[in-house]
Write a structure and sequence with these properties.
Bound molecules: zinc ion, manganese (II) ion
Number of domains: 3
Radius of gyration: 30 Å
Strand content: 15-25%
Number of strands: 16
Distance between the termini: 70 Å
Shape: elongated
Largest sheet: 9 strands, mixed
Length: 487
């Protein structure tokens, strides 16, 4: 394509606090409507907000993680607009002095090189309530009800910087969103459950001729809560704008909505009807002063981040890069691995068995690692049994499936199911003899030089023993038979 897209996200994230941003009401999901409300979060006259210090802490925590500078003096501002889900008629947000500015999130660009995506600012604001329409679509609804449980839940707004390393492809946009969400979960500022609306995005898209330094007119697509739809919308918008430019036209600067059914963006409002929010400093709250000491304390409480863990796994355990990436997607999985690794003789094998075997079982059962019944030390024990050649990988798969269901230790299961490998040499020899005499044509071809067929014999032996033969011993035995009968 002759155009380069410039993509910038404004990401809203609901913080994981116990109570709301300016009152003591519980942050809670899925309860009956309007159960967690009070005069403050429903905007009753005379009610005054009191700032939740935990929300400030989580905001600073996010800012430090995303390499921002933290403003020591900040303040809140009123953003005025009318909407039924906004009981006060204004939202308490931040304007000139946000908590965090000038950060970045490092991702890999399309060539695998590090690329520090600019983050302009991160500010704290309150969420609005939620409208519940009497029918599926707003247009056909007879009435709408409003639920204020969500009103005043603390919300971070993470704003991308279109001038400092903006995202320039769909792949980068996806990488950015995935990584942002991963990190926010790692540092435990939000659960980022998209189905609950805990992470929502607005996205700005513009095009410019490749190599150009200026910017084209941008459109903003509002309020999306699914990565799939966000990326679809961006893709559609790039195509649509390219067609406008190709036809010699000009892209309107406007706000659009993505129609998920029709898979297209539609105009919502133009620049001319853009609301004037008449921001002014919030008179009901004092300036917030953050001490250097507080910032340092928060910095010291940050956990190891995914990039550092990938580095540690690849250097300390020689784990392949891609396996390390898969393992670190979820912090709980890393914790599980770390617990295994201390008891485990082969960390590479452990990662492989977590990423393939365990993940497959967890996916099939749709559970997470924290719900998995297998104790890390039992998992480590299973890996050791394979490494020591006590059981074969085939048997180990059986044992793992059983451990997953029962939560029993591997040795208990091996005992119970009689899965102990064949130790008795005469039994082994009997099986090998049976297979070899049953396949005279194969034997002949191996003698004539088709040595690859030894693997076939070995496979037959493993099958006959129902996986209980030790493949190393079995192979040695087959080779010896050939030598013995060489003439
Ligand atoms: Zn309240
Ligand atoms: Mn906002």
């Amino acid at each position: 394509m002759k155009y380069e897209p410039i993509i910038c996200f404004e990401t809203h994230v609901e913080l994981k606090t116990k109570t709301k941003l300016f009152c003591g009401c519980a942050v809670s999901y899925g309860d009956e409507p309007n159960r967690h409300i009070c005069p403050v979060c429903t905007g009753q006259p005379g009610a005054l907000p009191v700032l939740n210090s935990r929300a400030v802490e989580l905001c600073v925590r996010t800012g430090l993680t995303l390499n921002c500078s933290i403003n020591k003096r900040t303040r809140f501002a009123r953003k005025n607009y009318f909407y039924p889900d906004l009981p006060k008629g204004y939202q308490i947000s931040q304007y000139e002095l946000p908590f965090c500015e000038n950060g970045f999130l490092e991702i890999q660009d399309d060539n695998g090189n590090p690329y520090a995506v600019g983050i302009k600012r991160i500010h704290l604001e309150e969420d609005a309530g939620k409208l519940v329409h009497s029918s599926e679509s707003f247009d056909s609804a007879d009435y709408s009800l409003v639920d204020y449980n969500r009103a005043c839940i603390p919300l971070l707004e993470i704003v991308g910087d279109h001038e400092r390393n903006p995202l320039r492809s769909i792949v980068q946009a996806k990488t950015y969103l995935d990584k942002l969400r991963q990190i926010l979960k790692y540092i435990e500022v939000s659960d980022c459950m998209m189905e609950l609306g805990q992470l929502r995005c607005d996205v700005n898209v513009s095009l410019r001729p490749r190599g150009s330094n200026s910017f084209g007119n941008r459109t903003e697509i509002k309020n999306m809560a699914s990565f799939r739809f966000i990326l679809e919308a961006v893709q559609h918008e790039i195509k649509r704008q390219a067609a406008v430019l190709d036809a010699g036209g000009q892209v309107e600067q406007e706000t659009r909505l993505y129609n998920e059914m029709k898979k297209e963006t539609i105009p919502m409002r133009s620049k001319e009807d853009a609301p004037d929010y008449r921001y002014f400093p919030e008179p009901d709250l004092v300036e917030v002063v953050i001490e250097e000491e507080t910032i340092e304390k928060i910095r010291n409480s940050l956990p190891e981040l995914p990039d550092d863990i990938v580095q540690r796994l690849t250097t300390d355990y020689d784990i392949p890069y891609n396996d390390a990436l898969v393992l670190t997607r979820d912090k709980q999985v890393v914790d599980y691995f770390d617990k295994c690794a201390s008891d485990c003789k082969d960390a590479r094998r452990a990662v492989r068995w977590i990423n393939r075997g365990l993940f497959e079982l967890m996916n099939d059962a749709s559970i997470s690692i924290t719900e998995c019944k297998i104790a890390p030390e039992d998992f480590a024990c299973l890996i050791n049994l394979i490494s020591e050649g006590v059981i074969t990988e085939t048997i180990a798969r059986d044992v793992l499936a059983d451990m997953f269901k029962s939560g029993d230790a591997p040795k208990t299961i091996i005992e119970k199911k009689g899965l102990k490998p064949i130790q008795d040499a005469s039994i082994m020899e009997g099986i090998v003899d049976k297979i070899m005499s049953g396949n005279p044509d194969v034997i002949e071809r191996i003698r004539e030089g088709e040595t690859k067929l030894i693997d076939f014999l070995l496979g037959q032996v493993m099958k006959e023993s129902r996986g209980k033969a030790n493949p190393k011993t079995a192979r040695e035995l087959i080779m010896r038979k050939f030598e013995e009968n060489a003439d």
